[in-house]
Amino acid sequence: MKIGIIGATGKSGMAILNESVSRGLDVTAIVRNKEKLSDKTVNFIEKDLFSLTTEDLSSFDVVVDAFAAWGDNVAQHSTSLTHLTGILKDTTTRLFIVGGAGSLYVDMDKKIQLMDGAEFPDAYKPLAVAMGKALENLRQVKDVNWLYISPAAMFDAEGQKTGQYVLAGEKFSTNEKGDSYISYVDYAIAVVDLMSQSEYNQKRVSVRN
């Protein structure tokens, strides 16, 4: 399996890169600045996401989009996916998106999302709204093999690796203690595991411990 990881120097991208490398997979980091790569031996493409072409990506079995945008740039979650789905249109390459938890549903009718709750942090609301909009746009894409993977509400960059996770659906869920938690490293395990599972296509799943 040949894997490309966009944003491989970011926290989630690096975790997925490290997990892929640890399994001996053929992985390429797709980054704007190769000097930020901690592993200087890994294959890389040094290019901005918005400059990527079909030729750059079509040889990969899976492309992981770990692109992150904050502050005034949150709208790029939509524009970046528009670009990536445009260049991957009608190819066999699968597109995995590192998503957000804010758009997970908290009701059976799928009308109320986690970010609609009064307890959802105001500081993260603009990002959650932007990522939710990007997901809604993505749902309209029928000519790309995409998978949107939402982490738990508490997505812990410093969390430990347990090797355990629960794969859930669109509805917000918690463990037996009432916690919605996943570490970046366990999330990365789930993402790499999903690469070998073909039944998940053009849908959103979620991952928690």
TrEMBL record:
Membrane-spanning intervals of the chain: none
Classification via Gene3D superfamilies: NAD(P)-binding Rossmann-like Domain
Ranges of residues in domain NAD(P)-binding: 7-195
Annotated InterPro entries: NAD(P)-bd_dom, NAD(P)-bd_dom_sf, Polyketide_Oxido-like
GO MF entries: oxidoreductase activity, acting on the CH-NH group of donors, NAD or NADP as acceptor
Alphabetized Pfam families for the sequence: NAD_binding_10
PANTHER family: FLAVIN REDUCTASE (NADPH)
Record's protein name: Rrf2-linked NADH-flavin reductase
Origin species: Vagococcus fluvialis bH819
